[in-house]
């Protein structure tokens, strides 16, 4: 008797020891076996199943909501300057004014007496205009603060920082703070800032003199006075006249130069008579730090001069137990501003 092991060979691939039932080449085969049918070719590589990644919707970023904290404006302004809140929008945008009041006062760009030109011109473009009066000119007019080199009691504290902070923030104008000791240096400084007296390429939008004074003189330096007694005030007017923009205003940050008020024989009134068309502000008493109040400070329509008005905070003076005093606007009596008329106008205004 004979025993047969296996089934002979596959009738399709001819692999020995098996049948076509498990042949991978058999289209009817449900369970192909490459091990039993090595002649059917290599087994195909297994393709891994795709990795199932669960879908997650993006989680929105949670941003905590914070209510806007209102900006608190302190009532106390920087040294030497107090801003009337009713007119603060006339000065600069309210937010900037509030920031200015909160921030520590900044030092203005001082102009050393020995080399005023470098810093004066650093605040403005270097090119000169063609000389035509055009309110679209690229070089802005300038606010000039001239400070005496004689300050034995440090009344000005290296310049009135409150005024400097405000004027330096007005973008319509350049701002220069310079030290002076005599009329010749005033003229040289203004020439460096504005160009020649005969043909300045820009003019002064607002002029501030910071010097010790009296009803008859202003002390430019120790022992050097510009006075109405010796006529040197005429020389001062001649020096600044051609540099002043039409209708620009002048502040005499000097004690008692306006004593007696408009129409009286004082330094401010004589200077106003010599400079018709320009309003000059001066005090009839000693100016204490923090008493000066700016009620208006804004460029005119064409950015040529600064519309500015000054007063003394009388309430603050009285609270300190001092006698009230005032800063008056002085104008030339040649333009119909007689003593009676001006005093009556001021009484209504204040």
Walk me through the structure.
The chain has 350 residues and is an alpha/beta fold. It folds into two domains: 35 residues, no CATH class; 260 residues, no CATH class. Strands 2-4-3-5-9-10-13 form a seven-stranded mixed beta sheet, sandwiched between helices. α5 runs parallel beside α6. The protein is rod-shaped. The termini are far apart.
Backbone shape:
rod-shaped
- The number of E-state strands comes to 13
> What is the count of distinct domains?
2
Average pLDDT works out at: 76
Given helix and strand content, the structural type is alpha/beta
Number of helices: 9
Task: Write the topology of this structure.
Elements: E1 82-83, H1 88-91, H2 94-102, E2 110-111, H3 116-122, E3 142-148, H4 161-168, E4 174-180, H5 183-194, E5 204-210, E6 212-213, E7 217-221, E8 224-227, H6 232-241, E9 244-253, H7 267-274, E10 280-283, E11 292-299, E12 306-312, H8 314-319, E13 327-330, H9 339-349
Parallel strand pairs: 1-11, 2-4, 3-4, 3-5, 5-9, 9-10
Antiparallel strand pairs: 6-7, 7-8, 10-13, 11-12
Helix pairs in contact: 5-6
Task: Name a few traits of the molecule.
20% strand, alpha/beta, 13 strands, 350 residues, 2 domains, three-stranded mixed β-sheet, 9 helices
Short characterization:
The protein is of the alpha/beta class.
